[in-house]
Amino acid sequence: MSVKRLELLLLLALLAIAAVAVSLGESPLSVNQYHQALTDPGSPPGEVLWTIRLPRVAMAALIGAGLGLAGAAMQGLLRNPLAEPGVLGVSATAGLGASLAIAGGLAALPGAVEACALAGALLAGAVVVGLAARFREPEVLILFGVALSAFAGALTALVFNLSPSPVAVAEVLAWLMGSVENRDLTDIARALPPMVVGAGLCAYSAKGLRMLTLGEEAAQMSGLPMARLRVAAVAGSALLAGAAVAAAGVIGFVGLAAPHLVRAAARDDPGRILRPAALAGALLLVAADLAARVIPTEQELKLGVVTALFGAPVFALLAWRAARSWRS
Amino acid sequence: MTAAWTIEAARARRGQALVLDGASLEVAPGEVLGVVGPNGAGKTSLLRAGLGLMPLEAGRALLAGRPVAGLNPVERARRVGYLPQERRLAWNLPAVDVVALGAPDLPLAEAVAIARERLGRVGIADLAERGVLDMSGGERARVLLARLLATRAPLLVADEPVAGLDPDAQLLTLDLLRAQAQAGTAVVVTLHDLGLAARACDRVLVLDHGRVAACGTPIEALSPAVLAAVFKLDGALVETPAGLVVAAKRRSPTPS
Hints:
The complex is a heterodimer of chains A (328) and B (256). Chain A is mainly alpha-helical and 328 residues long. Chain A is 76% helix and 0% strand. Chain A is built from 13 helices and no strands. The radius of gyration of chain A is 20 Å and the shape is globular. Chain B has a six-stranded mixed beta sheet, with helices on both faces. Chain B has a four-stranded antiparallel beta sheet with strand order 2-1-4-5. Chain B has a two-stranded antiparallel ribbon with strand order 11-12.
């Protein structure tokens, strides 16, 4: 299958599942009510469809696309199929920023938690961009990312530890589990600018990611401005991952798994894989959010829980199959 | 004529260790220069320092008369194509896509056309669509050689291009590089096989402990004295119907 055809297929699948996701919900609508919602967006069924369900689905698609793209860019940059957006430590620091905001009582201020999460992500992003400009070796970024994640994780735990209010702790935990519930168009408008910039930077880095297939030195001698392309990939992924965490909490596995779903069709090309990986990420997250909503549970499942719950076994299966093909 | 590549009195360190201690190199268009020396002599460091991949503590490196340090990536790539010793490929791209990476300056269709032609030259046109990680080590080495040839640069630098190859592939690799030289390209290769270096290279540069121990025609550079002092070999280059060969044995350790 060509990449173009794959992208078309993913786009159609995404539209189909988005349509299903918009039409299904907690309060079932009759055929008449759907008709009313479509003809009169201001009516109560119209409100349900256009201001509750559609922004939620759009947000899931946006976050999923950002995570899929960031994951693909990271895998290309680090030349490692196990890389994902969180590997830079950006997700953990974004989580820390949000935790501090919630524990500090800022949750009531609209946009404050998101802003703090994004600030945390940008801070970590600036650190890793500086490292990427200085060191060529992918191992350096991975090691610093691990250290940054661990440190931010420890500080987040410290927030729990020192928080006098169990309510705040519960709130932080709920936020960290990831969700796109109750999102409106303002939330989307807030998440969009950093994600668009991040996507642009990743797209710009595509030819550098492809060249890195040959290794650092051959890429450096290839005539491409590798230093700039490497920084673009890191900054782009950090923006995407940071904005995703800021908008929806920590959602694992999508960034890791989405590139693998499309890798074969993109002929393993780390440049060509970016767009299909973004589409696959969007598809995965809209589907996961749909599952979170329709699986009957006492409390609605958190999106991050669903992606990890379904993602981990599927991923293990993929790894099993890949390992068998390596052996043969 | 301006030399394609000049390295003058290069000094460089890897960590604390001095790996280049005043080594120089010069190669002219149309010439194949072989760089030989024992393990750790500084062959790879000399290439890397001369290409601007490693900082020089003293000395200088010029590509077609211009200091390497002052060249931007495009200018540098226009002057030299480099095949590093490291042959690990990260992804299972089809061979033709990997070879096309040698010509990132061209539109994709032209780069692919060049890639197919180069794959034909290295004798694996039929493997163009095969994933490089599904290939044998020898096939992959040919793909990377084709990628080097696709750069169309006036200077080709190959670090151990024949390491791990069977004799036929070794000779094919050097024949292809020689053919490039006959068309006016300057070629620099590091080699471990002294016989191969003597047969395939116009000049041979012998490195030892980061210094040039000898440089000249194979007969001059690989003299019995150099074989003894640098390689601990008792012997000499011998002319045979198949070309020069090294007839030598290990020096018996001096009794202490």
